[in-house]
Amino acid sequence: MAGYSGTKEDYLKRLRRIEGQVRGIARMVDEDTYCIDILTQVSAVTKALQAVSLGLVEDHLSHCVVDAARASDEAGEEKVREAADAIARLVRS
Amino acid sequence: MAGYSGTKEDYLKRLRRIEGQVRGIARMVDEDTYCIDILTQVSAVTKALQAVSLGLVEDHLSHCVVDAARASDEAGEEKVREAADAIARLVRS
Amino acid sequence: MAGYSGTKEDYLKRLRRIEGQVRGIARMVDEDTYCIDILTQVSAVTKALQAVSLGLVEDHLSHCVVDAARASDEAGEEKVREAADAIARLVRS
Amino acid sequence: MAGYSGTKEDYLKRLRRIEGQVRGIARMVDEDTYCIDILTQVSAVTKALQAVSLGLVEDHLSHCVVDAARASDEAGEEKVREAADAIARLVRS
């Protein structure tokens, strides 16, 4: 089971809102809205997605990494390495 | 008229794809997919949104800023300031 | 001549401060400071460098891009393309 | 003791190189180097600082978080929360 199930409804709600925001940006493009206003909206969606990522990282550390650290040295190391790679992709995206 | 109308269809296609990817992430959460795999997908969507932003910035510079620079000193300065603010929001998001 | 000479002293002052902050981080590492405190300091330096970049982008748009837009279509396009590439590197770094 | 001492020399070497690069950027500004070339150099330094941060995060997870997870639930939770906050600052910087 994944580490975020306690707040699953919350993630689903946030992702549905983001989906609606992306649809709103498409509508702005379709209606020839001024570029700067579209850019502002794209930045807002990017920030919302980042907040989802940061929540997932924290949930992952709290559950999967902590559990693995308790199970064995090897399991802990493997999960830390995997989490660090995901964090690196996040920082670089 | 906005500065990106020549490639409007291209932006709409990319935004529809991003909308579908966000819906896919919601599905992954709903099916308890492993957090790291969801994070990878969220990073991909963030990168796709960034590419849209960078395209909009370039279109804006090519059309609105260049036209304003030719119209008058004040118009040029105003558009440069506005573009610089949008770029700052983008870099910080 | 570069587009930022009016505020050259300001940039030099900020860069000297950043250099001192990087030296401070090395000292923190050398003295085995707690990792989280070092991370906070590295984030502060990254933000300061970003502010320098955003200032340079705005100066570049105000001077080089605006001048090129007035000189000719080709010169304008070339400078816009070059600026857009630099902004993309900035957003992705 | 901090979680990165095994590779302390490596961090110090990287930070000294970054300090030299920042000094190089100041020299470029002083010599009126073309803005785009300075921006490229600033992006390189930002990336180098990010790599230092990501190394520190991984070291922190491997040592402090793993040790705390084994010590007690409360200690684990506290370190995870602190690490998540530092990662959020990093992603937003």
UniProtKB/TrEMBL annotation, chains A, B, C, D:
Keywords: Copper, Cytoplasm, DNA-binding, Metal-binding, Repressor, Transcription, Transcription regulation. The keyword Chloroplast does not apply. It is found in: Cytoplasm. InterPro entries: Metal_Tscrpt_repr, Metal_Tscrpt_repr_sf. Coiled coil: none annotated. GO terms for molecular function: DNA-binding transcription repressor activity; metal ion binding; transcription cis-regulatory region binding. GO terms for cellular component: cytoplasm; protein-DNA complex. Belongs to the CsoR family. This is Transcriptional regulator. It comes from Cellulomonas carbonis T26.
